[in-house]
Amino acid sequence: MDNNIFDKIGFLGPLLLFSIGIYNLLDQKIYLIAYLVFFITNTLVNKILKRLIQQQRPSYGKSIMNEQYKGTEMYGMPSGHAQSAFFSISFLYLVKESPTLFISELFIAALTVFQRWKYRQHTPEQLFVGSIIGIGFAYFSYWTTKHYLSGKTFYLNTI
Prior knowledge:
6 helices; 0% strand; mainly alpha
């Protein structure tokens, strides 16, 4: 299986989207801090769900960068790549409301989902569930930040 530049972008999609998120939130410190905290929380939620569900990854998965899955990462439900990617694009869209940024990030997220399916690291169901959880958690994170944190942490705006 040849791994081209799009496969590599897909594999690194969550990291790329995380970096884009940080860069675009530098001018909104409250949302930047919330993004960082909730991104980590989203990752922990994924690990907890993998441990609870314990659904195996598809058989005969291919490795793009010699991934070695151990512990909770040997499970595929929900997809951590999809969950992280869709958390990032959803949170950033809710804060910035930029269609151009959203479309470019959606392209990276689509490459991520496709790469995980192409290399048989996840089933379509695992990718779908991860995407939905990422979107839902992003909405929860944005709503919590907007309604509870932004007014109480006004001093962060001066940083």
